[in-house]
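anyone seen this seq b4? input:
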Amino acid sequence: MADWHAPQGPFDIPEVPDFIPRRLKPWLFILWVLIIQFSGGLYLASVTDMAGTTALMQEDILMAGYASLIGLAINFAVMFRIKFRFSTRTQLLSAGGILIAANFICAHTTSVPLLVAVCFVAGWFRMQATLACNSTIQLWLTPTREMPVFFSYVYLVVDSAIQLSGIAAIYTSFFLHWEGFHWIMSALLAIMMLMVLCLVKPLSPPMFIPLKGIDWIGSILWAGFMLCFTFICVYGNYFDWWDAEEIRMAAILGLACLAINLWRLTFLREPYISVQALKYRNVWIATAVYLVFFTLLATEHVFEHSYAEVILGFDETNLIDLNWYVFAGILAGCGFTYFTFALKKWTYTAMTCIAFALVILYLGYFYFTIDYGVEKEMLFIPLFARGAASVIISIIFLTLVQGGLPFQVFPQALTLNGFTGAVMGACFGPALIGEWLRRVMAKNFMLMSSVLTDAKGADVMESFMPLQRQALVVSMKEIYGWLLIAAVASFALLITRYLTRRL
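predicted toks r here
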């Protein structure tokens, strides 16, 4: 088993029988990882249809979707331990069965706790199966283990799957019902499991590492902290923030989980996330950049859907077609990062400057063009820029976190990176921008409605909806302007740092 990746001669995968051509073997794993990435149990693109037929609130479905990301992030710290404990065949079959069950449960349940728990488990197994596939073909992708090359591939697959699965889910619900996509993905997962049974040998990993000594209590506490943080961000506006007992209790519970974990670090020999990972400078740099960067892009979650649906009058299929523009940006961003950062060795600061320049383009385009008469094709430029910017920043800072860490600590740092980049990036910024929009829109609506003080009742009712739409447009434009100023200031700091280092 020493020649696990067959470094001598052409690349080969010993787990796959020889009657499969060598050149085809890696593509089997790419096919399987795409099926796994498309399968999440819950598909946020169909959140409106799901909320309309299950009596669940959109916040409930978003919470379950973010729970899947938390399960994914928590898995990072132990994913290599599991990889070296179980065969690739076992990992893929287990993940396939769990994801099929998750699709079935999410299509039928109306219990929010069950939905959140199932999505958390599904995210955990989806990450493990993704690692099983990607680590098997890593030396095929980059024989010298160049991590920027590998991460460019990873984000190309993961981010593309997010956009394409949303498109597939909406078009499936257009022709069938929203549950139809769950059955399609269950069928594809079953086909994948059948292929794995027939085409993957149950070979033991090259080095058997038992699961003894893992701090499972710590993993539960870290997951509890992340879930409480996400609950506050998702339900804060619904419960009116700190005036609600639910939000206060979530804050207390989350802080308690965090405090207990930090206390346990003082005496545990092998905590789930070690002191070394928490003290690692690059983790905190990545966290700070993620908070600023994804807050600037949070208008994606708060504004774009409302603007396209309420102001421009797009239906569901036209809305999801916008994902194609983001998908094009992801392809371009991954390709650009591969050629410049991975091959040409451009610096982290230079690449970060480029990503923030694309954010400026995204915000500036919306600020100067947002209006009632925008055509769908005119949204290509900002959405393309957003897709490229997000994938560039993700690749370079995942590489930054990976560099300089011992292998034992690297997975723990990935858990922190996954939480700050994926979970906080998805829920903190939208919560902040959403509350900002609510307050600004209330102010603008009051100012605009002052002209109706002398109008009669019928005239007031007739003018109410147009006035509300106008207040929404003005409020969006105002917030886009402030975010644009913040993006320009961030870019100025970065470019100054870059030029100072070059001189």
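The radius of gyration is 24 Å. Residues 1-8 have pLDDT under 50 and may be disordered. kinda curious what u guys think
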